[in-house]
Amino acid sequence: MRATSSVRYPYFRSTIIFIVICSLCLISLITETSTQPIQKFIKEFFSFITVPIYFAKDYINKSLDTTITAIFHAEKLQRENQSLKEELTKLRLALIEKNESIQKIKNYLNINDIKKEKFPQSKLIPANVVEIYRGTLRIDKGTKDGVTVSQGVIAPEGVVGIIIETSPYTSVVATLHNKNCRIGAMIERTRLRAYDGVIFPAGDFRKVCTMNYIDIYETVKIGDLIVTSPESLFPAGIPIGKIQAIHETGTMWKTADIIPIVDPYNLDVVYVLETKIDPLDSVYVQNIDEANTETSKQLPIQELLAP
Question: For the chain, which end, N or C, has fewer CB atoms within 10 Å of the first or last residue's CB respectively?
Protein backbone atom coordinates (compact mmCIF):
# COMPACT_ATOMS: atom_id res chain seq x y z
CA MET A 1 0.00 0.00 0.00
CA ARG A 2 2.80 2.39 0.85
CA ALA A 3 4.42 1.77 -2.46
CA THR A 4 1.13 2.42 -4.27
CA SER A 5 0.52 5.70 -2.44
CA SER A 6 4.07 6.91 -3.10
CA VAL A 7 3.57 6.26 -6.79
CA ARG A 8 0.13 7.87 -7.03
CA TYR A 9 0.99 10.97 -4.98
CA PRO A 10 2.95 12.71 -7.75
CA TYR A 11 0.12 11.89 -10.19
CA PHE A 12 -2.48 13.78 -8.03
CA ARG A 13 -0.16 16.65 -7.12
CA SER A 14 -1.40 18.98 -9.88
CA THR A 15 -5.03 18.18 -9.02
CA ILE A 16 -4.43 18.98 -5.36
CA ILE A 17 -2.78 22.30 -6.28
CA PHE A 18 -5.70 23.16 -8.58
CA ILE A 19 -8.24 22.34 -5.81
CA VAL A 20 -6.33 24.49 -3.30
CA ILE A 21 -6.27 27.46 -5.70
CA CYS A 22 -9.96 27.08 -6.49
CA SER A 23 -10.76 26.83 -2.78
CA LEU A 24 -8.83 30.02 -2.08
CA CYS A 25 -10.73 31.77 -4.85
CA LEU A 26 -14.12 30.59 -3.46
CA ILE A 27 -13.16 31.66 0.06
CA SER A 28 -12.18 35.04 -1.30
CA LEU A 29 -15.56 35.37 -3.09
CA ILE A 30 -17.57 34.25 -0.10
CA THR A 31 -15.76 36.47 2.33
CA GLU A 32 -15.54 39.27 -0.25
CA THR A 33 -11.85 39.47 0.35
CA SER A 34 -9.59 41.07 -2.31
CA THR A 35 -7.98 38.59 -4.68
CA GLN A 36 -4.86 40.68 -5.14
CA PRO A 37 -2.91 38.87 -2.41
CA ILE A 38 -3.89 35.58 -3.97
CA GLN A 39 -2.89 36.78 -7.44
CA LYS A 40 0.36 38.09 -6.06
CA PHE A 41 1.00 34.79 -4.34
CA ILE A 42 0.23 32.86 -7.52
CA LYS A 43 2.53 35.08 -9.61
CA GLU A 44 5.34 34.81 -7.09
CA PHE A 45 4.81 31.09 -6.87
CA PHE A 46 4.97 30.58 -10.62
CA SER A 47 7.90 33.00 -10.88
CA PHE A 48 9.67 31.02 -8.23
CA ILE A 49 9.12 27.88 -10.28
CA THR A 50 9.77 29.24 -13.79
CA VAL A 51 12.69 31.65 -13.20
CA PRO A 52 15.25 28.89 -12.47
CA ILE A 53 14.02 27.07 -15.53
CA TYR A 54 14.47 30.21 -17.63
CA PHE A 55 17.97 30.79 -16.32
CA ALA A 56 18.83 27.14 -16.88
CA LYS A 57 17.52 27.36 -20.44
CA ASP A 58 19.51 30.56 -21.07
CA TYR A 59 22.65 28.99 -19.63
CA ILE A 60 22.21 25.89 -21.76
CA ASN A 61 21.66 27.98 -24.90
CA LYS A 62 24.76 30.06 -24.23
CA SER A 63 26.80 26.94 -23.49
CA LEU A 64 25.63 25.31 -26.71
CA ASP A 65 26.46 28.45 -28.69
CA THR A 66 29.92 28.64 -27.11
CA THR A 67 30.59 24.95 -27.72
CA ILE A 68 29.44 25.04 -31.35
CA THR A 69 31.46 28.23 -31.98
CA ALA A 70 34.54 26.68 -30.39
CA ILE A 71 34.18 23.54 -32.53
CA PHE A 72 33.90 25.48 -35.77
CA HIS A 73 36.63 27.91 -34.64
CA ALA A 74 38.94 25.00 -33.85
CA GLU A 75 38.37 23.56 -37.32
CA LYS A 76 39.11 26.97 -38.82
CA LEU A 77 42.27 27.28 -36.74
CA GLN A 78 43.32 23.80 -37.80
CA ARG A 79 42.86 24.69 -41.46
CA GLU A 80 44.79 27.93 -41.01
CA ASN A 81 47.53 26.07 -39.14
CA GLN A 82 47.80 23.52 -41.95
CA SER A 83 47.96 26.32 -44.51
CA LEU A 84 50.71 28.07 -42.54
CA LYS A 85 52.69 24.83 -42.33
CA GLU A 86 52.45 24.39 -46.09
CA GLU A 87 53.58 27.97 -46.67
CA LEU A 88 56.47 27.51 -44.22
CA THR A 89 57.55 24.33 -45.99
CA LYS A 90 57.46 26.09 -49.36
CA LEU A 91 59.51 28.98 -47.98
CA ARG A 92 62.07 26.59 -46.52
CA LEU A 93 62.40 24.77 -49.84
CA ALA A 94 62.76 28.08 -51.66
CA LEU A 95 65.45 29.15 -49.18
CA ILE A 96 67.32 25.85 -49.64
CA GLU A 97 67.16 26.22 -53.43
CA LYS A 98 68.35 29.81 -53.16
CA ASN A 99 71.29 28.81 -50.93
CA GLU A 100 72.20 26.03 -53.37
CA SER A 101 72.10 28.50 -56.24
CA ILE A 102 74.28 30.94 -54.30
CA GLN A 103 76.77 28.15 -53.52
CA LYS A 104 76.91 27.13 -57.19
CA ILE A 105 77.52 30.74 -58.20
CA LYS A 106 80.29 31.03 -55.60
CA ASN A 107 81.91 27.83 -56.86
CA TYR A 108 81.63 29.06 -60.43
CA LEU A 109 83.22 32.40 -59.54
CA ASN A 110 85.97 30.69 -57.54
CA ILE A 111 86.80 28.28 -60.32
CA ASN A 112 86.80 31.13 -62.84
CA ASP A 113 89.24 33.08 -60.69
CA ILE A 114 91.52 30.05 -60.42
CA LYS A 115 91.19 29.40 -64.14
CA LYS A 116 92.22 32.95 -65.00
CA GLU A 117 95.11 32.89 -62.54
CA LYS A 118 96.63 29.45 -63.04
CA PHE A 119 95.56 28.08 -66.43
CA PRO A 120 93.76 30.69 -68.51
CA GLN A 121 94.07 28.66 -71.71
CA SER A 122 92.63 25.42 -70.35
CA LYS A 123 89.04 24.47 -70.97
CA LEU A 124 87.04 23.32 -67.97
CA ILE A 125 84.12 20.89 -68.22
CA PRO A 126 81.75 21.28 -65.23
CA ALA A 127 80.27 18.00 -64.03
CA ASN A 128 77.85 17.00 -61.29
CA VAL A 129 78.80 14.21 -58.88
CA VAL A 130 76.12 11.51 -59.15
CA GLU A 131 77.73 8.71 -57.11
CA ILE A 132 80.48 8.25 -54.51
CA TYR A 133 82.00 4.82 -53.89
CA ARG A 134 85.26 3.68 -52.23
CA GLY A 135 87.39 6.64 -53.13
CA THR A 136 85.87 7.17 -56.58
CA LEU A 137 83.34 9.60 -57.97
CA ARG A 138 80.97 9.07 -60.86
CA ILE A 139 80.22 12.25 -62.79
CA ASP A 140 77.55 13.06 -65.36
CA LYS A 141 79.97 13.91 -68.18
CA GLY A 142 81.48 11.40 -70.63
CA THR A 143 83.16 11.04 -73.99
CA LYS A 144 80.32 12.90 -75.71
CA ASP A 145 81.28 15.92 -73.63
CA GLY A 146 84.99 15.65 -74.40
CA VAL A 147 86.05 13.69 -71.31
CA THR A 148 88.86 11.13 -71.77
CA VAL A 149 90.88 8.84 -69.52
CA SER A 150 93.81 10.46 -67.62
CA GLN A 151 92.31 13.95 -67.60
CA GLY A 152 92.68 15.88 -64.35
CA VAL A 153 89.71 16.79 -62.16
CA ILE A 154 89.71 19.77 -59.82
CA ALA A 155 87.49 21.72 -57.44
CA PRO A 156 87.83 25.39 -56.47
CA GLU A 157 90.01 24.36 -53.51
CA GLY A 158 92.42 22.14 -55.46
CA VAL A 159 93.00 18.70 -56.97
CA VAL A 160 90.24 16.09 -56.81
CA GLY A 161 91.73 13.24 -58.87
CA ILE A 162 92.04 11.84 -62.39
CA ILE A 163 89.65 10.20 -64.85
CA ILE A 164 90.19 6.41 -64.92
CA GLU A 165 87.10 5.24 -66.79
CA THR A 166 84.74 6.78 -69.35
CA SER A 167 81.48 6.04 -71.11
CA PRO A 168 79.44 8.19 -73.49
CA TYR A 169 77.52 9.91 -70.70
CA THR A 170 79.39 9.30 -67.44
CA SER A 171 82.95 8.97 -66.17
CA VAL A 172 84.71 7.66 -63.06
CA VAL A 173 87.18 9.78 -61.11
CA ALA A 174 89.85 8.18 -58.90
CA THR A 175 90.27 10.60 -56.00
CA LEU A 176 93.27 11.04 -53.73
CA HIS A 177 91.63 8.43 -51.47
CA ASN A 178 91.90 5.76 -54.20
CA LYS A 179 95.09 3.77 -54.81
CA ASN A 180 94.77 4.20 -58.58
CA CYS A 181 95.31 7.97 -58.33
CA ARG A 182 98.97 9.03 -58.59
CA ILE A 183 99.79 12.66 -59.22
CA GLY A 184 103.05 14.45 -59.92
CA ALA A 185 103.69 16.75 -56.98
CA MET A 186 106.21 19.08 -55.38
CA ILE A 187 106.59 21.15 -52.22
CA GLU A 188 105.52 24.69 -53.06
CA ARG A 189 107.97 26.36 -50.70
CA THR A 190 111.11 24.69 -52.10
CA ARG A 191 109.73 23.16 -55.35
CA LEU A 192 111.22 19.88 -54.10
CA ARG A 193 110.07 16.71 -55.84
CA ALA A 194 110.37 13.24 -54.42
CA TYR A 195 112.66 10.81 -56.21
CA ASP A 196 109.76 9.17 -58.07
CA GLY A 197 107.99 12.51 -58.53
CA VAL A 198 104.51 11.46 -57.35
CA ILE A 199 102.33 11.15 -54.27
CA PHE A 200 100.44 7.95 -53.49
CA PRO A 201 97.06 7.54 -51.79
CA ALA A 202 97.21 5.29 -48.76
CA GLY A 203 94.72 2.97 -50.46
CA ASP A 204 92.89 2.16 -47.22
CA PHE A 205 90.63 5.22 -47.28
CA ARG A 206 92.34 6.82 -44.28
CA LYS A 207 92.29 10.12 -46.19
CA VAL A 208 96.08 10.26 -46.11
CA CYS A 209 98.50 10.35 -49.05
CA THR A 210 102.21 9.61 -48.97
CA MET A 211 105.20 11.24 -50.60
CA ASN A 212 108.03 8.69 -50.62
CA TYR A 213 111.73 8.87 -51.43
CA ILE A 214 112.43 12.36 -50.10
CA ASP A 215 116.16 12.92 -49.72
CA ILE A 216 117.11 12.77 -46.06
CA TYR A 217 119.09 15.99 -46.37
CA GLU A 218 116.25 17.98 -47.87
CA THR A 219 114.37 20.42 -45.62
CA VAL A 220 110.74 19.39 -45.29
CA LYS A 221 108.39 20.91 -42.72
CA ILE A 222 105.03 19.93 -41.29
CA GLY A 223 102.43 22.22 -42.82
CA ASP A 224 104.25 22.60 -46.15
CA LEU A 225 101.82 22.93 -49.04
CA ILE A 226 102.03 20.24 -51.72
CA VAL A 227 101.07 21.36 -55.23
CA THR A 228 101.03 19.82 -58.70
CA SER A 229 104.37 19.78 -60.48
CA PRO A 230 104.97 20.79 -64.12
CA GLU A 231 105.44 17.11 -65.00
CA SER A 232 101.95 16.13 -63.81
CA LEU A 233 98.68 15.84 -65.68
CA PHE A 234 97.71 19.18 -64.17
CA PRO A 235 99.02 22.69 -64.64
CA ALA A 236 101.71 23.37 -62.07
CA GLY A 237 100.83 24.94 -58.74
CA ILE A 238 97.36 23.55 -58.03
CA PRO A 239 97.05 22.69 -54.31
CA ILE A 240 96.99 18.98 -53.45
CA GLY A 241 97.41 18.87 -49.69
CA LYS A 242 99.53 19.72 -46.67
CA ILE A 243 102.22 17.68 -44.91
CA GLN A 244 100.84 16.27 -41.67
CA ALA A 245 103.79 14.15 -40.51
CA ILE A 246 107.36 13.26 -41.55
CA HIS A 247 108.85 9.79 -41.00
CA GLU A 248 112.48 8.75 -40.94
CA THR A 249 113.07 5.35 -42.55
CA GLY A 250 116.62 4.73 -41.35
CA THR A 251 117.84 4.89 -44.95
CA MET A 252 118.74 7.66 -47.37
CA TRP A 253 115.06 8.51 -47.75
CA LYS A 254 112.25 9.83 -45.62
CA THR A 255 108.51 9.91 -46.23
CA ALA A 256 105.76 12.45 -45.56
CA ASP A 257 102.06 11.99 -44.81
CA ILE A 258 99.84 14.43 -46.72
CA ILE A 259 96.26 15.41 -45.94
CA PRO A 260 94.41 16.29 -49.19
CA ILE A 261 93.03 19.82 -49.49
CA VAL A 262 89.78 18.58 -51.04
CA ASP A 263 87.39 16.16 -49.34
CA PRO A 264 85.77 14.36 -52.30
CA TYR A 265 82.86 13.18 -50.17
CA ASN A 266 81.60 16.75 -49.77
CA LEU A 267 81.57 17.67 -53.46
CA ASP A 268 78.54 18.33 -55.62
CA VAL A 269 80.30 19.77 -58.67
CA VAL A 270 83.78 19.15 -60.08
CA TYR A 271 85.63 20.43 -63.14
CA VAL A 272 87.44 18.30 -65.70
CA LEU A 273 90.53 19.82 -67.29
CA GLU A 274 89.96 19.12 -70.96
CA THR A 275 93.48 20.20 -71.92
CA LYS A 276 96.66 20.73 -70.00
CA ILE A 277 98.71 23.72 -71.17
CA ASP A 278 102.42 23.51 -70.54
CA PRO A 279 103.64 26.56 -68.54
CA LEU A 280 106.16 27.49 -71.26
CA ASP A 281 103.63 27.04 -74.04
CA SER A 282 101.12 29.27 -72.27
CA VAL A 283 103.37 32.25 -73.01
CA TYR A 284 103.12 31.45 -76.69
CA VAL A 285 99.57 30.15 -76.71
CA GLN A 286 98.99 31.37 -80.25
CA ASN A 287 101.60 28.89 -81.51
CA ILE A 288 100.03 25.84 -79.87
CA ASP A 289 98.99 23.27 -82.44
CA GLU A 290 97.14 20.00 -82.27
CA ALA A 291 100.33 17.97 -81.88
CA ASN A 292 101.30 19.84 -78.75
CA THR A 293 97.78 19.43 -77.41
CA GLU A 294 97.83 15.66 -77.93
CA THR A 295 101.27 15.45 -76.31
CA SER A 296 100.02 17.36 -73.30
CA LYS A 297 97.32 14.76 -72.80
CA GLN A 298 99.78 11.85 -72.55
CA LEU A 299 100.57 10.34 -69.17
CA PRO A 300 103.87 11.71 -67.70
CA ILE A 301 106.64 9.14 -67.41
CA GLN A 302 106.96 9.63 -63.66
CA GLU A 303 103.32 8.70 -63.14
CA LEU A 304 103.46 5.95 -65.76
CA LEU A 305 106.45 4.19 -64.18
CA ALA A 306 105.60 4.86 -60.55
CA PRO A 307 105.42 1.64 -58.52
Answer: N
Q: Are residues 91 and 208 in the same domain?
A: no
Domain count, the chain: 2
Residue 10: the pLDDT is: 55
What is the residue-averaged pLDDT of the chain? 76
Q: Can you give the chain as a three-state secondary structure string? A: CHHHHHHHHHHCHHHHHHHHHHHHHHHHHHCCCCCHHHHHHHHHHHHHHHHHHHHHHHHHHHHHHHHHHHHHHHHHHHHHHHHHHHHHHHHHHHHHHHHHHHHHHHHHHHHHHHHHHHCCCCCEEEEEEEEEECCEEEECCCHHHCCCCCCEEEECCEEEEEEEEECCCCEEEEECCCCCCCEEEEECCCCECCCCCEEEECCCCCCCEEEEEEECCCCCCCCCEEEECCCCCCCCCCEEEEEEEEEECCCCEEEEEEEECCCHHHCCEEEEECCCCCCCHHHHHHHCCHHHHHHHCCCCHHHHCCC
Question: Based on the domain organization, do 298 and 262 belong to the same domain?
Answer: yes
Residues of the domain holding 264 = 122-304
Q: Would you say residue 15 lies in a domain?
A: no
Q: Considering the entire predicted model, what is its pTM? A: 0.57
Task: Looking at the structure, tell me whether residues 188 and 296 fall in a common domain.
Answer: yes
Q: Are residues 201 and 293 in the same domain?
A: yes
Last residue of a domain, one of 118, 147, 179: 118
pLDDT, greater one: 13 or 181: 181
For residue 14, being part of any structural domain is answered with no
